[in-house]
Amino acid sequence: MGKRSDYxxxxxxxxxxxxxxxxxxxxxxxxxxxxxxxAEAFADMADPALIRWCSGSQDEYLATCGAVGWGRLLTExxxxxxxxxxxxxxxxxxxxxxxxxxxxxxxxxxxxPALWALVQDWVAGPPLVQRAVAAGICEPRLLGAPQDAARxxxxxxxxxxxxxxxxxxxxxxxxxRVLRQGLGYCWSVAIAASPAAGFRLLERWAATxxxxxxxxxxxxxxxxxxxxxxxxxxxxxxxxxxQAGQ
Length: 246
Description:
Elements: H1 3-13, H2 19-25, H3 36-45, H4 48-55, H5 60-75, H6 81-88, H7 94-110, H8 112-122, H9 127-137, H10 146-164, H11 168-171, H12 174-193, H13 195-206, H14 211-221, H15 224-244
Helix pairs in contact: 1-3, 3-5, 4-5, 5-6, 5-7, 7-8, 7-9, 9-10, 9-12, 10-12, 10-13, 12-13, 12-14, 12-15, 13-15, 14-15
């Protein structure tokens, strides 16, 4: 595990009352990239009380660490974990929202049926909750089994259908923009895991008159993984997209 393992060793050597100071010192912020490996190590080892405290912090990095940590508590059966993560999914800070996606992936690493049960509950939620679902499930390591890839495509299909149903006011909001941006790459991950079924769905969405959905399709077609998965199918979707835009 490299750096993550190294950070666990450091955290293990520190008194608990020094953990927050260490997180702040090694956060990587301000800067272009927060210290994800340290956040993962924290989530592996932190006391539940510290996870809860961090997730409520006004400090973005501490709150991100807390969000990732809730993923471990979720795997351990904490009754508040799913509700807390759903609330954090709508946090205005993008790093905290990424922490929620990482938390969902942590659940998937240990219990995919539990992840799909949670997805079923969240998929009809507001845009930022839907974005957490999409980002959480669209991780290649989680989609190796055909049934998991199929469920990811089903979830993305439902979320995209909600985009089509969004009114003009909703489309002007920041949460909608964040969801649209997320769907602009998540589809490509799920399709790479199940190309035949995935390209059929993407081709259908390419034909829609909805401009936001066509934008999402276009963004996914820019991802090299789609051409690698099936270049002929990707070209066919692009042709449908071009025709729909005329």
